[in-house]
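Changelog note: in this version the structure field was regenerated for every chain. One regenerated record is shown below for reference.
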Amino acid sequence: MAEALIILPTYNEIESLEMILGRIRQSVPQADVLVVDDSSPDGTGRLADQLAATDPGLSVLHRAEKDGLGRAYLAGFAHALDNGYLYVIEMDADGSHDPSVLPAMLSLAAGDADLVIGSRWVSGGSVRNWPWIRQVISRAGNVYCRIVLRSNIHDITAGFRVYRADALRWLDLSAVSSQGYCFQVELAWRLERAGKIVVEHPIVFIERAAGRSKMHAGIVLEALLRVTLWGIFGLRSAMTK
């Protein structure tokens, strides 16, 4: 069995799925891939099944409805841990994350890193084809998280990640309820607070060429509210010690 499992959450990604799977196979042919599809009405799940029929390293998990990015990843994590993978990879299915950097990220995880984040906002990282307002929101959100949570992570909202399976086992995943950006923030912050090793590796993030972004105001507001509450709780805890 492969050591690494790449989790691809999908909802209406029929235009990009075959392309990103081809790029993954070129970059990390030894990795297994799990597509977690939320009953995409455009037929993404059916296409994934067809591709899996000719690729023994590809499997598909069908969920009954669109239930959020965080829960899709939690379902994928459970599959990875139940099947004994050593490394668990989060990656977008729209082509914005370049799988050619995965060998370097996996090498860091094979060293001493519990979590490797593909970071847009460290030296060498960048974004392409984003409108200026989205760059401002992302940068400002990450700065806010760093200040409020007293974190050293520059791109704590990033969705391109390699976890050591042992780090995920350490987390109480049953207690995670966040979605979207906030899901990424919560897991990274909990590992950082516990003294686990979090490493950022620079990436070039390229905006999707096909399909529609799943980002909306509700995801941003959820992250803002939860991060603020976590920051207050952390400060209160610190004052009682």
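Spot check on this record: The beta strands are 4-10, 32-37, 58-62, 87-90, 115-119, 126-128, 161-164, 198-202, 204-206. The mean pLDDT is 90.
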